[in-house]
Amino acid sequence: MGFRKKNKSPPVLSHEFVIQNHADMVSCLAMIILLGLMFEVTAKFAIMFITVQYNVTQVHDEKSEPVNLYQYGPKDVATVFFYLLIAVILHALIQEYILDKMNRRLHLSKTKHSKFNESGQLAAFYLFSFVWGCSILTAEDFATNPTFLWEGYPHTQMVFQVKFFYICQIAYWLHALPELYFQKEDIPRQLYYICLYVVHITGAYVLNLHRLGLVLLVPHYLVELLFHASRLFYFSDENKQKGFTLWALLFVIARLLTLTLSVLTFGFGLPRTENQGFSLAEGNFNVLTIRMTCLAAICLTQAWMMWKFINFQLKKWREHSQNQASKKKTVSPKSKPHKRDPARGGATNGVVSSDDKTSPRARKLKAS
């Protein structure tokens, strides 16, 4: 990874060069954007990458203080790009200073090494996102009133924390796509779930469904955090498997919660709101086609996840059954030692026993 000292320098722009120095190159690009803030000519362009755009100031009463709210727009692409660079740098830092040091102590195989790195990166991200999402839900009271998910739609304005949360989420999952360039195995599986995250989170952001998206992401991230944390403990000690049992239970509950809130929002909530229709200018997408498309996408994704989950559990159950069957196999009885034939007396292999009572004269006649 980047930041690591190398003894040999590979050819510039070669595969090995990009692998070893990609974090350094990304850091230089991020520094160039930050340096743009120092000059008046470039500051207005650089600030578009760094700060959150499209702020709207609202004043409810003359006595109350103005409230800054935010909308989305094309300039968010630049902001997502900058924080994508930050995600690449943080990815390299976690890999270099945490995961690589743990790998040296554990001495894992190549397959387990790759899975350990994946779980380590995702566990750190899920933990950060879950804590951040819970703080937003607590501050905004999103979870206390279910009707808050659709009342007043379209929700074109959001507070700073919500918009910055979505910017960082989209940036992280987009950064995971070029990171697949450094993977050698299991790329299709990772590509599937990365694309699903990008489509669902971006869809909730663009369609002004950020309230529903945030409420669904928080429990989902908790379940994923538990899974990857359990896998990290399993790699350190294969006897530590209790976390997978709790993960399996919460996984099913999270799928049911996701389906319930989605059907409640798209099937009962949004069809009864006052603002019906399609308008890009107003950010209103409350039409039957879009509602059913969003609900179908969520249901199909949950069904696919449950199918993968059931196959995973069946595979583990078969492996456990085979291990138990191999342990219960009866051990073949050991062969009994042969007893000495008493008819042979004391003589064996033609050797005369010391108990032979033959007279010396008889022995001489026998020898002659």
Termini separation comes to: 93 Å
- Overall body shape: globular
Q: Tell how many strands the DSSP assignment holds.
A: 4
Helix content: 55-70%
Major pleated sheet: 2 strands, antiparallel
Strand order of the largest sheet: 1-2
Protein described:
The structure is a single chain. The protein has ten helices and four strands, in the order ααββααααααββαα. The strands form two sheets. The chain has a two-stranded antiparallel sheet. A two-stranded antiparallel sheet has the order 3-4. A hairpin with an 8-residue loop joins strand 1 and strand 2 (67-70). The chain is mainly alpha-helical and 368 residues long.
Helix-strand layout with pairing:
Blueprint (H helix, E strand, L loop, with lengths): L14 H21 L4 H11 L4 E4 L8 E4 L5 H31 L3 H31 L19 H20 L7 H20 L3 H27 L5 H28 L7 E3 L4 E3 L1 H41 L31 H8 L1
Antiparallel strand pairs: 1-2, 3-4
Helix pairs in contact: 1-3, 3-4, 3-5, 4-5, 4-7, 5-6, 6-7, 7-8, 8-9
